[in-house]
Amino acid sequence: MPHETTTTPHLGYNPECEYLGDGPAPAADPDQRRARVTSGLVATVVFLTAIAPLATDMYVPAFPRVARDLSSSATQVQLTLTTFFVGMALGQLVGGPVSDQRGRRRPLLAAVVVMTLASVVCALAPTIWVMMAARLVQGFAGGWAMVIGRAVIVDLATGAQLVRVLNVIAAVGGIAPVVGPLLGAVILQLSHWRVSFWVVGALGLAMVVAVLVAVPETLPPERRHAGGLRAFGGAARQLLRNRHYVGYLVVSGSAMGALFAYVATSAFVLQSMNGLTPIAYSVDFAANAGGMTLAALAAARLAGRVATRTLILGGQVAALAAGLAMLVGALWFDTPLVVALVSFFVLMTAQGLIGPNGGALASAEVPEHPGTGSALLGFVQWVAAGTIAPIAGLGGEDTAVPMAVLMVAGAAASMVGLLVLARPRPRLDR
Question: Residue 54 pLDDT > 80, yes or no?
Answer without folding.
Answer: no
